[in-house]
Design brief:
alpha/beta; 8-stranded mixed beta sheet; two-stranded antiparallel sheet
Amino acid sequence: MAPEAKDKEIEAIVIHLARAESRKPQVEKLIQATPVPAVVLDAVDAQKLTSEDLSRYRRRPLFPPSYPFRLKTTEIACFLSHRKAWQHIVDRNLFAGLVLEDDVYFDDDHFHSAWMLALKHIQPDRFIRLPYKERERPGDVVERDNGTAIFEPQHVALGMQAQLVGRSAAEVLLRETAVFDRPVDTAIQVLKQNRHKVLVVLPSGVTEHSGELAGSTVQFSGMTLLNKLTREIARLIYRTKLRLWRWSRNG
């Protein structure tokens, strides 16, 4: 618990792809809405990745359980963008960084309470998720306040829309993801056992509106029905392996 975190330097880091012109008005609104000073971080552009980049980050498997899919170019760019945000936290020697994707909105009725709990409990070694969907079940509850809870999740769900990342947690993530074999949110699921603690705040007051902003920048278009079915079966098998891996780690 760190009430003194209020006196430490924290920045909001908004990840934004420069050529996504339709999102610029939203980025300006987001900057105005953040509870701490904000900077816009140029996202890594998938269209500018070289073949060397792609071959480096498509190695697998690196972490158990083995990820069943070949990484999309857009997934690699997304992961590198989050690494860029973590590097910003380290380079600026911040106490923590509020890392935001640019399709985030804040619901004022809930976000203020969620932010105050996150701020109260942030430490350099902590990674605090503010997910836009309530999919995580509480393990150990750290604190409840007026219907908002911060807790250690039984498992980490997908999504990287908003998270408060402590400086040493950022250092660990950078070190452990110098090469990666799966999307960034999927990697967080298997890296949470290491030297940074993952906490979740719900309800977070964070919502995601990529559908209103010309869609997500990570797309899976052009797939046949058979490809989609095959992918769903592989995803189901992976989730089963992930549950078994969690059980083996916690049992």
